[in-house]
């Protein structure tokens, strides 16, 4: 929360120091600063995305890859997103997923992290 207050104060200081006349909007200075701070925080958190599930050369085996950026926990978001995609794929077919292998990449804090999962779908017992 300390970072949010710092960002809010900087945005407000910049707005007060501006000598260029600005058109009044429906948003107050405080509201605009809060929106800017929220956007800054969201960009630090990053996001994850995944490829479509595709069949591999081995019958009954599929693969899906996911990547995530932003922060030191990006590897965990990439891993969870890939596992979730595999689980959802099998569940839509009334089955459960079984991960065969996982390949991960990316270790630097602000680099893209990736997870590639090979999995099979098996009947639920």
Question: Could you give a short description of this structure?
Answer:
With 125 residues, the protein is an alpha+beta fold.
SSE diagram, text form:
Blueprint: H1 2-17, H2 29-45, E1 48-50, E2 54-55, E3 61-68, H3 74-91, E4 95-105, E5 113-123
Antiparallel strand pairs: 1-3, 2-3, 3-5, 4-5
Number of strands: 5
What's the gyration radius in Å? Answer: 22 Å
Sheet-strand content, in percent, reads 25-35%
Report, as a whole number of angstroms, the end-to-end distance.
47 Å
Using the alpha-carbon principal axes, give the shape. Answer: elongated
Uncertain segments: 1-8, 18-25, 37-44
Rounded mean pLDDT is: 74
> Helices and strands: which structural class?
alpha+beta
Total number of helices = 3
Query: H/E element string?
Result: HHEEEHEE
**How much helix is in the residues?**
40-55%
Number of domains: 2
Largest sheet: 5 strands, antiparallel
